[in-house]
Amino acid sequence: MENTIKVERAILNLTQDDLAKKIGVSRQTINSIEANRYVPSTVLALKLSEVFKKPVNDFFKLVVTD
Amino acid sequence: MNVKKIIECEQNKFTKIINFRLSSKFMTVGIAIVTLSIVMMFVRAFALEGDTEWLKLLLQKVLLVGLLIMSISRDKEEDEMITTLRSQSYAIAFVIGVVYALVMPYVEFGVDSVVESNVSEFKNLGDFQVLLFMLMIQLLFFHNLKRYR
């Protein structure tokens, strides 16, 4: 799975730390999600969707290998 | 109370048990207990005289308690990723622990046979050795997974 969280974060002018605080996780977790090392739970994905004010599908995309 | 409520109640209790963690302050308590018990083990081995077998057994149990406290204490920034990493570390520790318990007695027997002239009898591992190994592997993997996340 790929994501464009880094882009969405840049649009809102948020640092990793700001976003982490908004959704109640650590900065390292945001870093891992952005680097595609960790796939977040549905709850976390929905929290991100709330922050970005966009549906989850807009910033999480399935790839061929999924 | 109907059946649905009983099932819900059981599920809630089960979830509470699964999610049970000590406060992050207990990590320091665990480290202190482990350090103290290791120091005491050295003192017992090199400074104390007489029959101190009971102390050895007691210190082994204290060491395991300390490691267990370290293992189940909450991280400073506990989130879902940390929970996932912890689960992974327990899974790895369990598998490696079982392999260790199965293989190590043969390794010890083999080494004993080579080193000593008269072959010693085959011995299974004690509970302390297996539990210590599993807890150490869990903590090692958890902290490494956290570092490389």
Can you tell me about this structure?
The complex is a heterodimer of chains A (66) and B (149). With 66 residues, chain A is mainly alpha-helical. Chain A has one domain (2-55): 434 Repressor (Amino-terminal Domain). Chain A is built from five helices and two strands. Chain A has a two-stranded antiparallel sheet. The model of chain A has no long low-confidence stretch (mean pLDDT 93). Chain B has 149 residues and is mainly α. Chain B has two domains: 1-74, no CATH class; 76-149, no CATH class. Chain B has five helices and no strands. Chain B has helices spanning 3-18, 26-46, 53-72, 80-115, 127-147. The longest helix of chain B has 36 residues, at 80-115. Classes of the chains: A mainly alpha (66), B mainly alpha (149). The interface between A and B is small, with 13 and 7 residues.
Helix and strand element order of chain A: EHHHHHE
Q: Radius of gyration of chain B over alpha carbons?
A: 20 Å
Mean pLDDT score of chain A: 93
What is the rounded distance between the termini of chain A? 7 Å
Give me the number of helical elements of chain A.
Answer: 5
The largest contact between protein chains, plus residue counts on each side, is:
A-B, 13 and 7 residues
Instruction: Give the rounded overall mean pLDDT of chain B.
Output: 91
Please give the structural blueprint.
The complex is a heterodimer of chains A (66) and B (149).
Chain A: E1 2-3, H1 5-11, H2 16-23, H3 27-34, H4 42-52, H5 56-59, E2 60-61
Antiparallel strand pairs in A: 1-2
Helix pairs in contact in A: 2-3
Chain B: H1 3-18, H2 26-46, H3 53-72, H4 80-115, H5 127-147
